[in-house]
Protein: MFS transporter
Organism: Streptomyces lunaelactis
Amino acid sequence: MLGTTTAGARLRAVGGGANRWVVLVVLCISLLLVTLDATVLHVAVPAVTEDLRPSGVELLWIVDAYPLICAALLILFGTLGDRVGRRRVLLIGYGIFGAASAVAALATTPEVLIGARALLGVGGAMIMPATLSILRAVFPDRRERAMAIGIWTAVAAVGAATGPVIGGFLVEHFWWGSVFLINIPLMALILPIARWLLPESRGGADGPWDVLGALMAAAGVLGAVLGVKRLGAGEGLLDVRTACPLLVGGVLLALFVRRQKRREHPLVDMRMFASATFSTSVGCIVLAMLALVGLELIAVQYLQLVLGLSPLETGLRLLPLTFAAMAAGATGSHTLHRIGPRRMVGWGFVLTAAAVLLLTLMGQDDRPWLLTTGFVLLGFGLQTTLFAAYESMLSEAPPEQAGGAAAIGETSYQLGAGMGIALLGSIMNAAYAPAFTSLGGVPGSASSAASHSLGEAYQVADRLGGAPGEVLRNTARHSFVHGLHVTLLVSAGLLLLGALAALRLPRVMECPTVEKCPRPRREVPLPASREPAEATGSGRRAH
């Protein structure tokens, strides 16, 4: 590992030259692998079930272990990177991610696959905040940083959206383990390149690292995300398996916040949330991800179960959303400079709400142009919102807190995704189930089973056969489309609330460069004899 002086010289060289764009490419490839792994397994679940024969609980953990562990450890590793070096944490994350991918690809039992997925989550949690905080250090100029964040957020959208496409192709042509095996050569290639090219950077190193606080944050986020995911799986709020994780997670997070406020050298400076820009940006990330993941999940079910498309065809249908997100990221810096964060986030939410309302015209027949138009508007609108929110959040945070700020942003991303599945999934189920209360000629037990999901309704209808089976199938299709419309209307309302929240953001993109235009302060002015906190190098802002 390079010494402090050499690392500092490398950081200054990269930050001031064309190589910073090469650094961005390396960071984006890292992010692409992590986000792709979050969704690539979804289409491989039937093949995994057939091969490993997991129980229902084991299958749930095979799917959820990665995002749960990743979300829980983001704050821990994000703040650790601020202390020991973000590049160092990133490189260790590469090694863990590659090794875990090999174990997952060759797993022969459900327990091994669950353990490998959990280890992938550890590697992902080390990689994700490090990429964003290194980006913050390498691009001190805010306009260039805005362009870099636009590319970064577009890559994140590409990874999440293309996961099902790549997974569908690999499962159809090889075996389910190949969805993990593709990570290994890429990690083997990128690790030495990153070690040679990426600069080391650290934040404030005052005081000891709060190990207990880091563990409290990890356990609190794990409990909160686990509880939210159980709600999304249809379990009741008062169910012990749902209420206990939510309660424990909420208490631990409250104690974590209290602890950070009292410590002289906190892991995360909670005073950042006193800034309307920072707190609003975090809230907008949660709302945007809530809409995106919830709608994508329902859209996948619609495309496969109502329109009868294969997993690969479903992934291809979602590609317009990906391309639109890439376009929004590529043009985001120019748009942000011209219209400012407030309008960009607000109009992004409005455009997304319009796309969602357009998709309420979907029915039981395939309408490709309607779906394509809706997905294009949806991808462009949401990516516009996410880009401006991430950029505003990261620019508002002090440089020495970049790892903690990035971890907060990524945790918000994960929480929003979990809440989207839970909230919109619950609304979908509530609108779908009532149609099965009284079906003439269909046994009550069959109607009850069919009310759980459209996929289960099809299985029950096939077993019944004849006229009762046909009645049950048609009822399920009609009810699902009705539930889809209700869910879309609720989503549009939430997105419009996000547009109203965006009114708290600044009108214009302030501070084109950090050096030429220091961040405007909202605290009580200091006496003339004292220097601002940032000028003294203490890395603390007084609010």
User: Anything to note?
Assistant: The CA atoms of residues 96 and 123 lie 5 Å apart. The two ends are 37 Å apart (CA to CA). The chain has three domains: 20-203, 211-266, 269-507.
